[in-house]
Amino acid sequence: MAAVYSGISLKLKSKTTSWEDKLKLAHFAWISHQCVLPNKEQVLLDWARQSLVAFYKKKLELKEDIVERLWIYMDNILHSRKLQNLLKNGKTINLQISLIKIINERMAEFALLGSQRSICVVLSCCQGILSTPALAVMYTARQELTVDLLSQLCWSACRQPGAVMPQLFEVLHLTLGLYLSIQRQQVNPRRAFGEVTTHLLQPCLVLRHLLLAGTWTQAGQGQLRPALSRDIRSQIEAVLRGGAFQAELLPSYKEELLDQQQGDTKMGAMKNLLAPLGTVMARLVDAGYCEPSLQAAVVANSVALLYKLFVDSYLKEGNRLLCFKVLPRLFGCLRISHLREEQLQALSASDWTMELLALEQLLNSVAGSTIYNIATDRIRHGETQFHFYRRLAEMLLNHPQAPVPAWFRCLKVLLSLNHLILEPDLDDLLASAWIDAEVTELRTQKAQEALIHTLFQTFAKLRQVPRLFKEVLEVICRPAAEALRLPVLSAGPAAVLRECLPDLPPNQVLDAWALILERFQSLVLPDLQGDMDMALKSLSLSSLLHCVMVHARSLDGDSPLPVVRRTWRTMDETLRGLVKPLLDLLCKPQPSVPEPWRQRVSDSALLLAHTWAQVDTVLGLSCDLYHSEPGALAGTAPETSSLPPLLPGVEARQWKEIEEFAAQSDSLGRYCLEQLHLQRMKNTLLQVSVQSEEALLALRHDAAYILGSGRVSLTRGTTASWDGQVGTVSALTYPVAHWHLVVSNLTILASYLCPDDLRYLAGVLLRTLPMSKAQEGPAAEEPDITLEEISKAVLHSPVLPEMQSLHSALLLRVTTSCAGILCAGAQRGPALLRQQLPWLFEGDDVVVAHGESRFPEVGSEGVEPRGGIAQNFLSLARGDSPVQLEGEQLESILQLLEVLSALQLDSLPPPHHVHCVLLLLSVASTMLGSSCSPSLTLRFLMTCYRLLGYLQRGKSAQSVLRVMYVSDIFEITLTSLFKASRRFLVDVDDPSWLEFLQVVGTFLEQPLQMLLQRNLSPGLNFGKILTFLSRSQPRPEATPGRGSEDQTPLGQQLLLVSLTKLCQVLGPLVKEQKQHEALEAPRELLQAAVLQAGAVLQLCGAWGRRLPPLILSSVASLLEAEVALCSGHGGTEVPGGKDHMLLPHAALYQAVYSQTLSEFPALAGDTPSLQAAVQFLTLFLLAPELHPQKESVFTSVFQSVRKVLADPAIPVQAVEEIEPHLVALFTQMLEVGTTEDFRMALQSILQGLDVSNMWRADLQAVLSALTLVKLLLNCPFGGEKASLFWRACPQMVVALMLQTREACREQPVAPALVGPVLDVLAALLRQGEGTISNPHHVGLAFGVLLAVPLDALRPPDYGRIFPRVHNVLFSILQCHPKVMLKAIPSFLNCFHRLVCSVIREGRQKDKGSAEDLPVVLECARLVERMYSHMALRAEEFRVFSPFMVAQYVMEAQKVTLYPAVKDLLQEGIYLILDLCIESDIQFLRASLQPGVRDVFKELHSDYVKYHKAKHEGERRYTV
Fold first, then answer.
1. Which residues contact 979 (CB under 8 A, 6 or more apart)?
2. Fewer CB atoms near the end CB (10 Å): N or C, the chain?
């Protein structure tokens, strides 16, 4: 054998053996147990290593293929389970340094050249070494090799972004983790600093930048997992922190930055480095380690990181100045800090964005810490920080970058640091960031809004808002190209002012108001004549004044008299000194003035006029001391008319001229004129004499003017959107603003509009509705208002049905449009169409005025018109339709029907109701062309019949029967559907077809019910319906020309649905043995319907492997009808006796029963099928003659239901939906089942509750048993069965306790089991009141509650489990008072866990939002309610009341609760304090710990002050 061993070794070393054979031999030697070499693993590993080392040192020539296979062989060894087991068992395997160096060299070549054939295998070998601690010790022992490998891996990843390999990042992740462990054990800070700055800083920062930029997270090959990217970035930051910002380097940084010489510099490891920050910055800005464009991005991305790491490492009480000193140095690395003026201007927008983002992050680090203290900086450091921030502010304002959101955010941070930083340049700030800023992108608008909001908040705190307005006015009034400016008050700034102005003191608002007024009068008004720039400035100032006047807090009855008087004077000055001069200027004849100038002056004047009128009305209503006397205010005599004017002191002639000019263009002035007329309407309605003829005429005139003003614009339409601000109304957005004004005030306008105007309104509403999902668009992306959004809001508004005139106009507009499409599809000329469908040609006035008289009353004299209309419809349904619709027409009608379905049709007046029904029947009976797809046709018909069903549930449903009999409706509907069904290319079990059948069935059932309820010739109608159905029934012997046309599966299902509905309507009459006063023979009619339905079911018998829900529900209805017939046959005899009458279709029912049981688990996947199956089984149990003789129906059904409930594929929601049906089924099962059957069911339930199911992880078996217990508890049963159940109850409670303990041992807790267990336990305790006699069995419930770990639940699960625990406790408290006498400590222990959990979940958290607070509040309410129930049992709980208070106080002292949670808990604990006597209070004050005692004193003080005083006051007035 020794020769064999030496032979293998010699062959591997022999020069004569080919490398192919050597590799095969080495591979065999490694995997074979027959080849036994001394220290075989080490020998083979050394052979592969030596071969690779010899090749790379040029001592051996090998082919590339052989080298790659050697690497693969090495990789197989390193990843083999055999090697891992050897190392685990303690065997030593040595890797030589030479192999590690070879791997590092290969990585260096890859990083430099970018491509190498065997790099994947080399990476795999490296991964195998690093992931095995016993092998990774080679890297740990030689730290410089780890640093070299890490550096080369980073460069490899950075320089080959296109060909990245996920394996490279996995190895990089391992290497970073290994180096971090080495770094933590490093005792020489100089060495760690040198390694990081010399070798790792540059590649790590470049790699981090590329990872943040998402270079490798795009879809495609080599995609990097986001989690791995985050981990690598975190490791890079940890490496930089551990190398460049160690605690031992703090003296070096102080010496460099603060010029502090250290006393002791002789310690070797602690010897100060020379300029560590300078070293880091020099490496950061060093040219050449990457491309210049990439380096700029890396530097900008890295300075914020380095500053954050420095602050995190060294920020403490005495180092604030040190942390600041780093900021200017790092800021100096950015290009914007040192480039010359022309170079800064040459930077692109992307460069500015990158640099400003870095500056923003630097400033956020300052603002997020306590680095800048204004007083400390001023007193101790000579405002060093302040001057630096001033330089930053000057740089930002000298080079405004309004398109960049970060520019606004940088200014916002500087403003929040100290308002004095920006105050010297406040005018430049307002100009560049607001007035002159061109901001169009949404993100930039948000940043601008945040800056302006901070600006106004800051000056509001300083009580200097008037000064801010003064600066704003100075900027607006500067000479500038006004035409290039955007509106001063766009949505963002306007929103800021809306929020700020109501909180300001009245005098500050009046100061700002007076400033705007003074600037307007002194700087703009004198030079306004003919000057276009001044006209634009006047519009800007008007917008600003409008915002101040409208959004300031209004006066009220408590306002001080000086403020009221000053407001009155300011209003007077505004009207006399500004509004009237502008209106007079507008009305002067000025032929040489350009039209745009007049337009802007008109906009400005009318905006201020509208604003003044609106504010004057509000002040007059809200403040009694404010009186606006038109004559005194305007300086003219009051109006002689009793009606309010548009504006005091302005003559009607002047308004006429203004209106004529405003009507020439779509402008802001036109919109404001509409607002003025609307305001006059409101003022008129506020007057007492509103019912006078003069007032009504004025109201109608104003309403007509408002609507007519924008009629032409709305006809043209627009796709523009409007931000809702008055100042941004333009020719483009005017249609949207006008429509918004009309729609917002429809409740005022609609009552005073003529019928033509209402029809116009309905037409605009219908035309501007979005008719497709693509047209609607996502609401989140477009925050502004569009015509489509306004119309859609009106259509779905609950106010629309209340405005009956507009609702009727819109309804008639929709029906007229539908009729127009039908007329367009006429094939034989309008004469024939008018003859067959005359109601299509009726105008709105005919429907409204003559609707009642057009159709005769129900009676014998109405037969002819009824018959004529019915015959017309029947001819349409049979195919003799003069109208044929193609696909596009059908789509158009379908869109109109969708609009119709959005209207509330249940309260229509009879004429409109009848018109809608006739139109919908006409549409549904129309012939469809070949371009109409089956799916479109089915959707179209479903919409028609859903609407018809909705109409038949309305209050005017009976009015349809003035024109047609119910039998006619039945025949028309089915004839049309039989014909249409032949076009449907759908399966009989297609969900859309089944939904359509349900819709049709609902529609057919409603008129049948109406026949019986309202006694509308039911015998005649039911007879005609049965005759028609028998004639339509397919027969096997039918000739090809007769009957066979309806023998399609879909037609048979339609026929079956109609017969099923007949049986469902007639069945209850026969079952209750009631003789309907107008229905002579309901039994005979039902028998005929049953025979026909049975025949159709026999024809539909080939339903395949699965029972469709339609068949199941039809069979159930047929069985119910036959049982009703049999139960009423021969007096009161009930089937089941010897002489009972056999059911005609017994074989069918037994076959369906067998198939239902076999398919029951499969049916469970479809909720409608499952419901139908359960209903059928419930009815089957009522017919004992159908039950099989050889087996128990109870047992068979119970086992089938149990299998369904135990099937994990059945969703919980499906079981919850059919639970009421299962309760009905179990009720019948308990009636027919024997005691032995019930005992078997209980045994099955107890087996399901056995804890061994949890050990086998069979959770569904436990859940099914719990559901069965709930079902039994909901069924009424008594006698021996009830005795059996309650005797088994203790076993159930014990099983529930064991199940809960097992479920709660797992982490996370399984709430899917704990919740149902608690539900069943609570139900057992409630219904076991007086039945569960042993207190021990009730006490077992406490064991269940104590096993539930409320602290281990996620918030959603917590919200579901907590109420159930509370429910169990409440059931014990309410239903088992005898148990409570001995179990109060256990009860309080469980309840205390609830209190503690609410306190823990209701604490104010340092991070995160309060989105879970509603759940905690609901739980806190339950705790308060339980406290109140315990307080009602004062005798039982009084002894324990001080301990309950002490427990609450000790828990509440640990956290800070949300105020809402605290209020609820305190209200509950106050009720427990009511039970405490004075000695209890003294005991608590003496025994509680000092910190807890303070909390108790505060609680008791609030209790005495609020709760006790309140209740004593109530007792004082109690009789």
1. 877, 878, 879
2. C
Q: Report how far residue 1142's alpha carbon sits from residue 1157's, in angstroms, rounded to the nearest whole number.
A: 23
Over residues 825-832, the mean pLDDT reads 73
Residue 1308: predicted pLDDT: 59
3-state secondary structure 131-157: CCHHHHHHHHHCHHHHHHHHHHHHHHH
Consecutive H or E run containing 927: strand 927-928
Residue 1195, CA distances (Å) to 856, 932, 1032 in order: 61, 52, 42
Q: Determine if the pTM surpasses 0.90.
A: no
pLDDT of residue 1511: 63
Taking a C-beta distance cutoff of 8 angstroms, is the pair 1057, 1013 a contact?
no
pLDDT in the model for residue 163: 52
Q: Report whether pLDDT(254) > 60.
A: yes
Checking if the pLDDT of 1138 tops 50, the result is no
Model pLDDT for residues 1190-1229, shown as the tens digit of each residue: 788 888 888 888 888 888 877 777 788 888 888 888 888 8
Torsion-angle region of residue 754: left (phi > 0), alpha (psi -120 to 50) or beta? beta
Q: pLDDT tens, 217-247?
A: 654 445 677 888 889 999 999 999 999 999 9
Name the DSSP letter for residue 1189.
S
According to the 3-state scheme, what is the secondary structure of 58-97?
Answer: CCCCCCHHHHHHHHHHHHHHHHCHHHHHHHHCCCCCCCCH
The answer for residues whose C-beta is within 8 angstroms of residue 1196's C-beta and 6 or more apart is 1157
Q: Which residues are CB-contacts of 29 (< 8 A; sequence separation ≥ 6)?
A: 8, 35, 37, 40, 44
Which pLDDT does position 540 carry in this prediction? 92
Q: How far apart are CA 1483 and CA 1439, in angstroms?
A: 13
| Mean pLDDT lowest among 100-114, 507-521, 1011-1025 | 1011-1025
Of 698, 703, 676, which Cα lies nearest the Cα of 687? 698
pLDDT value of position 1139: 41
- Cα gap 614→741, rounded to integer Å: 15
DSSP conformational letter for 884: E
- List Cα–Cα distances, 890 to 296, 663, 977, 1202, 1274, in angstroms: 61, 41, 17, 49, 50
Query: What SS3 class is residue 730?
Result: coil
Backbone angles phi, psi at 177, to 5 degrees: -65, -40
Q: Which DSSP letter does residue 614 get?
A: H
CB 934 within 8 A of CB 983: yes
Scanning the structure block, which residue is given the tokens 């429910």?
1367
Residues 6+ apart with CB under 8 A from 936: 887, 890, 891, 894
Give the closest residue to 474 by CA, choosing from 507, 437, 428. Answer: 428
Please give the Cα distance from 137 to 134 (Å, whole number): 6
pLDDT of 1130 higher than 50:
no
For residue 998, the tally of other CB atoms under 10 A from its CB is 17
Q: Which residues contact 694 (CB under 8 A, 6 or more apart)?
A: 641, 642, 643
Which residue, 475, 500, 470, is CA-closest to 488?
475
Round the CA-based radius of gyration of the chain to a whole number and report it.
44
Helical H segments across 15-63, by residue range: 19-31, 40-56
Please, are residues 172 and 201 in contact by the beta-carbon 8 Å criterion?
Answer: no
The answer to whether the CB of 1387 falls within 8 A of the CB of 1342 is yes
* Length of the chain counted residue by residue: 1519
Residue with tokens 């009504």: 696
**Across the strands, what pairs with 928?**
885
What is the number of alpha carbons within 13 Å of residue 1411 lying toward its C-beta? Answer: 5
Q: How far apart are CA 225 and CA 1230, in angstroms?
A: 59
Beta strand pairing call for 927-928 and 884-885: parallel
User: Nearest to residue 97, comparing CAs of 144, 61, 63?
Assistant: 144
